[in-house]
Amino acid sequence: MDKLIIQGGTKLSGEVLVSGSKNAALPILISTVLAPGKNEISNVPFLRDINTTIKVLESLGARVEGNGHVVKVDTAGINSHEATYDLVKTMRASVLVLGPLLARFGKARVSLPGGCAIGARPINLHLKGLQALGAEIILEHGYVAAKARQLKGSRINFDVSTVGGTEHLMMAAATAKGESLLENAAREPEIIDLARILNRMGARIEGAGTDTIRIQGVAELAPVSYEVMPDRIEAGTFMIAAAITGGDIRIKGMKLEHLDALVFKLQDAGVEISSRDNVVRVKGPRKIRSVNIKTRPYPGFPTDMQAQFMALMCKADGASVISENIFENRFMHVAELLRFGADIVIEGNVATVKGVKKLSGAPVMATDLRASASLILAGLTSDNTTEVSRIYHLDRGYESIEKKLAGLGANIVRVQE
């Protein structure tokens, strides 16, 4: 098992390129099930979750070839409608194959999902939506079994905004008979990216990026070539890395408009942010100002940036209040940040962070994907050595982050424990 060793105190500088979006690439790869034939997906990041998705597709009978960041998926030969527990248990997004398999073959059997332990993320809204489209759903022995002769368009109103649920029902409805309406749909940029590839395949989807998505079902979809959007969470993590170290970096390949909520809060904290010729420059302040945040569904402040922003507030001048409104267990990184000497008090879903003059490096343990990033950020600004263990979480969502940070001047290495 690997760990990261970080010698803190270096101001980051230089240029870094953002990888393709994990959260967009996963459903995009799965969507190829709906388009029998040779699909080519580019700007795919090298990540554990991507490898898991490829294994799921191969287990179904797809032929997958990778060359650099280009993945070719031939789904013409899919001959199975079952995704087993051994594959699905490590990644929640695997459950998204249920809808496409059901739409294409009229039946599917998929294990209930796993993933990061950051709180309950039930798939009841996914299943309720599939039932509205005419599917018969049975839960048995840890699996979801679904069947339907022909999915039929329906009006689906989500009780709460759900990214995975919106993606799932959008794929399932693409070839359903008639029109479907998804209300209170998630609005994330990754939803728009999925709609784009589906429309390029021949789907008729309108309204992606708003809370109402209209889908006119078509008889079939055709394979395509498509480039995945950049990873906004990785980009945001680098922005905070510059801010927390007092650095000055340039970030290539990101879309600044995907991070408006984070940008506003970073500017409130004194961070200088500018954009020119598709390159974003981020300059950390001499003194970080305290800022309050509340996580919300997009376009609100992203829950996937909460842990990283908390690390920044540990060095702020004054106290900040961080409210986590998406996942109930997403403060697990707090116990590890306290080991750096941070001053954080939790009451329910609210954390009060009092900035300290310095953080001291410590041996810490990652508890989930974004918590891993917060510990690295704290280590970058600490006054001595930090060791971050259990970084297999990190490898699920950040492509070679230690190499990219080292390229910006950070003293960080990966070693085997």
Question: Describe it for me?
Answer:
- This protein is an alpha/beta fold and 417 residues long.
- The chain has 2 domains: 2-19 and 230-416, UDP-n-acetylglucosamine1-carboxyvinyl-transferase, Chain (Alpha-beta prism); 22-227, UDP-n-acetylglucosamine1-carboxyvinyl-transferase, Chain, CATH 3.65.10.10.
- Helices cover 29% and strands 26% of the residues.
- Helix 1 packs parallel to helix 2 (48-59), helix 4 (98-105) runs parallel beside helix 6 and helix 10 packs parallel to helix 12.
- The protein is elongated, with a radius of gyration of 21 Å.
- Pfam families: EPSP_synthase.
- The modification 2-(S-cysteinyl)pyruvic acid O-phosphothioketal is found at residue 116.
Judged by helices, strands and strand pairing, the structural class is alpha/beta
What is the number of helices?
13
Q: Could you give the order of strands across the largest sheet?
A: 22-23-1-24
CATH superfamily of the largest domain: Enolpyruvate transferase domain
Number of domains: 2
In CATH, the topology of the largest domain is named UDP-n-acetylglucosamine1-carboxyvinyl-transferase, Chain
Write down the Rg. Answer: 21 Å
Q: How would you sum up the global shape?
A: elongated
CATH class of the largest domain: Alpha Beta
Q: What is the distance, rounded to the nearest whole angstrom, between the alpha carbons of the first and last residues?
A: 6 Å
Strand content: 25-35%
**How many strands in all?**
24
- CATH architecture name of the largest domain: Alpha-beta prism
In round numbers, the mean pLDDT is 95
Largest sheet: 4 strands, mixed
Helix content: 25-40%
